[in-house]
Write a structure and sequence with these properties.
By secondary structure, this protein is of the alpha/beta class. It has ten helices and 13 strands. Strands 3, 4, 5, 6, 11, 12 and 13 form a seven-stranded mixed sheet that branches.
Length: 292
């Protein structure tokens, strides 16, 4: 049933094989045996497409229910047991560097039977395709079937190095930004431009400086080197500001600007594995509201 559901959800035997750590031929043989036992064709196959038959669609719905019930039964039976197993985590580089990594040692000390596989990337991954249990994401969340738990909200601010401001001058009002190097990300983000509040209205300042980059920590490094200014999270630049390495600019126009941080994970309304729930709960406690 698990293999059948994986093939149906991913639209192919090869994708299901990757998800289940099997070979495509192994998946094909299991599906063929299942169809023989049921006496019904579950998929219509072509060289380009795998599509459920009407019998397959009905069987798929029941399989999802049964597998969820099995997982729930196992979760309830082991509710008093310590979490065990591997948790695969995807997190953007700034959150991973400044918030997640300091949590790893205390998490492993509390849950010694849990192992972590952590991927730091500013690209948004597909949890199913990448076999990821939890992703920590900043900014607005798109509508999806994923579950989400809000970890907190961080203030966003525009910062520059003292050396850059001495050389280029400090902007006093938003229109002064036209003469400055505005650094940003090389991929599309949910928040386009820098949202500044002017006369009670939010205006978006385009980010079209000399450098666009795919890594939030590398962007911070460029700002520290005096290449330009950037919009970064408070937790990411807090130490730099306190040490005088960076300076917030246009604060009266950015005081409203913030982004939520969420942990997202696959759930489909069913039970969440104990190891995943323990990890998300731990993050919510360690980097939750009031700590960003």
């Amino acid at each position: 049933m698990e293999v059948f559901v994986a093939a149906a959800e991913r639209g192919g035997f090869t994708a299901a094989a990757r998800a289940m750590s099997m070979t495509p031929s192994g998946v094909s043989k299991l599906i063929a045996r299942l169809e023989t036992r049921l006496g019904a064709r579950l998929f219509n196959r072509s060289t380009r497409k795998l599509q459920l038959t009407s019998e397959g669609a009905a069987f798929f719905d029941r399989c999802k229910t049964i597998l969820a019930q099995i997982e729930e039964a196992e979760r309830c039976a082991g509710a008093d047991e310590a979490p065990v197993g591997l948790v695969r985590v995807s997190v953007n580089v700034p959150v991973g560097t400044h918030l997640l990594l300091p949590c790893i040692q205390p998490f492993l000390a509390r849950y010694p039977e849990v192992a972590l596989d952590i991927a730091l990337t500013d690209w948004v991954v597909d949890l199913l395709d990448e076999r990821t249990d939890v992703a920590v994401r900043s900014g607005p969340l798109p509508d999806s079937s994923l579950r989400a738990r809000k970890l907190g909200t961080t203030r966003m601010m525009i910062v520059a190095s003292p050396e850059y401001l001495t050389r280029r001058g400090e902007p006093q009002v938003p229109r002064d930004l036209s003469g400055h190097a505005r650094l940003g990300f090389s991929y599309a983000r949910a928040v386009k431009g820098w949202p500044l509040r002017v006369d009670g209205k939010t205006v978006s300042v385009p980010v079209d400086g000399p450098v666009q980059i795919s890594d939030g920590e590398a962007l911070r490094r460029l700002v520290l080197e005096g290449v330009g200014m950037a919009r970064l999270a408070h937790f990411q630049v807090r130490d730099d500001i306190e040490a005088g390495r960076l300076v917030p600019v246009l604060e009266p126009y950015t005081a409203h600007d913030s982004e939520d941080i969420h942990a997202v994970f696959v759930g489909d309304g069913g039970p969440v594995p104990t190891r995943v729930r323990a990890f998300v709960d731990f993050l919510a406690d360690k980097i939750g509201p009031g700590k960003l």
